[in-house]
Amino acid sequence: MDTTEKYARYVNISSVKAIEPVVVERASGAQIYGVDGRAYLDCFAGIAVVNAGHVHPRIAQAAKAQIDQLIHTCSYVYYVPTVADLAEVLAHITPGALQKTFFCNSGAEAIEGALRLAKVATGKREVIALQMAFHGRTYASLSITGNIARKTRGGPYMPGVAFAPAPYCYRCPLKLEPQSCGLACADAVEDTIRFQTSGDAAAFVVEPVLGEGGLIPLPEGYLARVKEILDRYGILLLVDEVQTGFGRTGKLFGIEHQEGIEPNIMTLAKGIADGFPLGAFIAPAAIADSFQPGEHLSTFGGNPVSCAAALANIAVLQEEHLVEHAAELGNWAIGELRKLQERHALIGDVRGQGLMIGIELVRDRASKEPAAEEANRVRHLCREAGVLVGVGGQYGNVVRLQPPLVIAQEQLAQAIQAISAALDDCL
Ligand SMILES: Cc1ncc(COP(=O)(O)O)c(C=O)c1O
Questions:
Q1: Would you list the domain boundaries of the chain?
Q2: What is the pTM of this model?
Q3: 241 CA: nearest ligand 1 atom
Q4: What CATH fold (topology level) applies to the domain 3-55+321-426?
Q5: Confidence at residue 329, expressed as pLDDT on a 0 to 100 scale
Q6: Alpha-carbon gap, residue 143 to 131, rounded angstroms
Q7: What are the pLDDT digits (tens) for 243-291?
Q8: CATH class of the region 59-319
Q9: Is there an atom of ligand 1 within 6 Å of 171 CB?
Q10: Does residue 139 contact residue 157 with C-beta atoms inside 8 Å?
């Protein structure tokens, strides 16, 4: 039996629409190699995870050295130096007063813990999230995920969750135009508080760029307006940096695009350790210390090997200037894609920050009918041309460009060329 046959027989993949027909043998930098010897340019990075590139030698070496020394004792039963070192570094590189980290294993688990912390810190019980947001696949994280496609047949979900409209300018849920809306979607957060909660909201949860929702950056001024509302009601700002963190948006953290705004709690995962499983949430001491003994724990959380990889990963991102590279290359790529938009009627919108770029495809620019089949065809044709891209968004019509940040401009140009050719083919 080959790998695909074993998958069909032994791996539970019935929840997955389709697995890309690439059997991976190895990967390096921005390249993935199939067992058939074929090389692919990776523009999806394992869903925005391997920001420092596949199998970065320095990160792999740090993990190997840690393996030889210690793999697991439980970082919440004994003191482990690597865990302490990583927590110290995170306190220094994250914004504002964020200081104390709880380590877990995934983004969803980070969200679960962060919600619990928001509740114990405020003594309040409700949560506000955004329509079209995605926060994970566990019970609480799905409960605050505003997307029916992710939630079908799993309900009823956690009570006490209210949703505010997505700040999605291309398809404004309030049917307004960005030039004249006066940030009505930000003001709508106050309506959500007043008309959908019982005045008991602990936190407002937000992604700096809505990732799974369709690579939608927050409009300028949106979060400042929301923060002003949250402060008036004593609601914490919980920023979900699982997908936007660690250089992905051209800043170390996506929230840094929002000048002067400090999260009360921030969740981290994906790009934190260049592919080693690790999740985290960080808060100022006054909030973090609200947990009482017995209120939270994780057996594998803060695994020393993942933490050693994370420390090396952060050093690589800083010393190889990958964050600046992502900012410059992202700007350039968005410019190139906007030129493509002039030639390809299928492209309705090009948006993003850094190397977190979405190309939203529509059948008709006036009606904005989502072109989901075409997006899948673009992915298919790109793969045939040796370029791996993602597809996502609320309507499944957004081509996702989220390569490892080590990708070179010539490689990204090759990917844009492949997308252009695929779009031609879709007509
Ligand atoms: C913003 C955001 N939060 C949370 C998650 C969940 O992370 P994980 O898949 O590691 O549980 C994701 C995953 O895509 C995400 O994009």
A1: 3-55+321-426, 59-319
A2: 0.98
A3: 1
A4: Aspartate Aminotransferase, domain 1 (3.90.1150)
A5: 98
A6: 11
A7: 999 999 999 999 999 999 999 999 999 999 999 999 999 999 999 999 9
A8: alpha beta
A9: no
A10: yes
